[in-house]
Design a protein that fits this description.
By secondary structure, this protein is of the alpha/beta class. The protein has 4 domains: 4-132, Rossmann fold; 135-309, Reverse transcriptase/Diguanylate cyclase domain (Alpha-Beta Plaits, 2-Layer Sandwich); 324-426; 443-534, Arc Repressor Mutant, subunit A (Orthogonal Bundle). Helix content is 59%, strand content 12%. It is built from 25 helices and 11 strands. It has helices at residues 13-22, 25-28, 39-49, 65-72, 90-98, 111-132, 135-145, 148-158, 164-173, 199-216, 245-263, 281-293, 295-298, 306-309, 322-333, 336-353, 357-377, 382-386, 402-442, 450-457, 461-472, 476-494, 499-505, 511-522, 526-534, and strands spanning 4-9, 30-36, 53-57, 80-85, 103-106, 182-190, 223-229, 232-239, 267-271, 275-276, 303-305. The strands form 2 sheets. Strands 6, 7, 8, 9, 10 and 11 form a 6-stranded mixed sheet that branches. The protein has a 5-stranded parallel sheet with strand order 2-1-3-4-5, sandwiched between helices. Strand 3, helix 4 and strand 4 form a beta-alpha-beta unit. It is globular, with a radius of gyration of 28 Å. The N and C termini lie far apart (57 Å).
């Protein structure tokens, strides 16, 4: 088992050196991955290093230990927090205990005492993981708590096989509360789960994921049902309103992060658009499945919302038929060989079934219509796909053979694939440029953060962070810091304004923290930087 990761935060270098050198980390099952001299630096490091344990002093500059622990609850929900404090900090200690801090150690810190605390935490972390992975216990829990009829009902509901007038009658019969209102569906997949010959193991993994989601989903005002659905776990979420979709995305991001510690698994979540009533959940779950297809472009181990990727759904292809869904996925996200294989498969059906000419013509028109809808929903011009003057009127009799028709279809699919890929690239670039413009106009505000920017862009923070990093090579925080530092350096060179005024004009409420960031960025304090420029 890999050692657990530890982050140490204390503004006294002597204490940090003492702890790092006197503790036999590997013997205790840990590795010290980072050290910070203040709370703000610790928060930044924690977001990068993802520690399992955070050792922090209570009193530190820029951000104290309790605020650090509070800020880390969302991104690191499973991390254990250990707080150091002096004898005169009883009120801090009381607050730490009320916040769920794992351990509280009085200064001066004794190495054997700290080692004992770490050993205790290691046992807790081990037990959590082993408990969640006890597949037989989860099998028994499933058999005892979930009747088969409920599972079958939810599955048929997602497949669109329960008529509107039957939904409430069936819900009452199975003692299920299924209110009208805003709903959405999410699909949770275990990355890399499917392996030949391991069907039983896969089912147990899904059971563990299902129990984990039911136990740890905590979004206020949102109720969920979790069921096994094909090769995934489906979440049926009843929302307070459509605006609650983004808090739901953030909650699923938190659960993806938590699953590493509790299950030792990597989860990817696809989330469909909100819909009106449980009778429309079959459409939302299809959109969730489409969102999962985008893993190949933006990566997994996270929540992916279809509304971030395909915001214009009015002309989007209906994916109720499996062959249409597969064709759409191949054209939008597949390689050239996958597109060619898909077209061959469609035409093989014609050969195998020996369809009449009229039936072949209808089948061919369905494929063309599918491509037209894909082009329009992706923002591509139909004439760019099918050629100048294309009116949609095309007949199977225009081709001399099925092979010629296949070559035509294949070339149109590949052309559409190229255009959609170009549209996605252009759209991503335009989004990032809008973000840069917003940052440039608001970098002097102390309230500038990724949530404010995403409200402006109408995107979820998780998707925007991935997009911004991919397009710029920098995180949002690093980009804003770079811009603020450039502006601060310019003002120090060209004006005589006081440092605290420059700090305010570059978005820093605390002048001391501004000086700290400036020195870390340029290697000198603002005053020395100004003095050096004047020589």
């Amino acid at each position: 088992m890999e050692p657990y990761r530890v982050l140490l935060a204390d503004d006294e270098e002597e204490i940090r050196v003492g702890i790092s050198q006197k503790i036999d980390w590997s013997a205790l099952g840990f590795v010290l991955v980072g050290e910070a001299e203040n709370g703000a630096e610790a928060l930044e490091l924690a977001e990068q290093l993802k520690p399992d344990v955070v050792l922090t002093d209570i009193k530190m500059p820029f951000m104290d230990g309790l605020e650090l622990c509070r800020r880390l609850k969302q991104p690191l929900p499973a991390a254990k927090m250990v707080v150091f404090s002096g004898f005169d900090d009883f009120e801090y200690a009381r607050q730490a205990v009320s916040m769920g801090v794992s351990e509280y150690i009085m200064k001066p810190i004794n190495a054997p005492e700290l080692a004992a605390v770490l050993e205790k935490l290691r046992h807790q972390l081990d037990e959590q993981r082993l408990e969640r992975r006890d597949m037989e216990a989860l099998r028994r829990r499933y058999e005892e708590s979930l009747p088969v009829l409920r599972e079958l009902f939810y599955t048929r509901l997602l497949d669109g096989q329960v008529s509107q007038d039957q939904i409430q009658d069936r819900a009452v019969r199975y003692e299920i509360e299924l209110p009208q209102g805003t709903w959405t569906a999410a699909l949770v997949q275990v990355d890399g789960m499917s392996e030949a010959g391991k069907v039983e193991r896969d089912e147990l993994l899904l059971l563990s994921v299902r129990a984990f989601l039911q136990e740890h989903f905590t979004l206020p005002g949102c109720s969920v049902r979790a069921i096994l659905y094909n090769d995934a776990v489906a979440l049926l979420a009843c929302l307070e309103g459509k605006e609650q979709i983004y808090p739901l995305i953030e909650e699923m991001e938190r659960l993806c992060a938590l699953s590493h510690s509790y299950l030792g698994m990597s989860l990817t979540v696809g989330i469909g658009l909100p819909c009106q009533g449980p009778g429309e959940l079959h459409a939302s779950v299809e959109e969730a499945r489409s969102a999962l297809d985008y893993r190949v472009l933006i990566g997994g181990d996270r929540a992916i919302y279809i509304g971030d990727l395909e915001p214009d759904r009015s002309l989007r292809l209906s994916l109720e038929e499996e062959d249409q869904r597969t064709l759409a996925a191949a054209v939008k996200l597949g390689s050239e060989s996958q597109v060619e294989e898909m077209v061959r498969g469609l035409l093989d059906r014609v050969r195998e079934r020996r369809l009449s000419l009229s039936q072949c013509h209808l089948y061919f028109l369905e494929i063309v219509t599918c491509l037209i809808k894909l082009a329009r929903s992706g923002g591509a011009e139909v004439e760019d796909v099918f050629g100048p003057g294309f009116t949609g009127v095309v007949s199977i009799t225009d081709f001399s053979s099925l092979e010629e028709l296949g070559r035509w279809l294949n070339s149109r699919c590949l052309r559409l694939r190229e255009l959609l890929g170009r549209q996605r690239t252009d759209s991503a670039w335009k989004t990032v440029e809008r973000a840069k413009d917003f940052i440039a106009r608001n970098f002097d505000s102390g309230d500038l953060n990724v949530e404010t920017l995403c409200d402006y862009l109408h995107l979820s923070p998780a998707y925007f962070s991935t997009l911004f990093k991919r397009e710029t090579g920098m995180s949002f925080t690093a980009y804003v810091t770079e811009l603020r530092m450039e502006r601060a350096a310019e003002m120090l060179r060209e004006t005589d304004e006081k440092t605290y005024l420059i700090a305010e004009k570059t978005g820093y409420v605390d002048p001391n923290y501004f000086s700290y960031v400036f020195k870390r960025h340029f290697g000198v304090t603002p005053s020395k930087f100004r003095a050096g420029q004047s020589r």
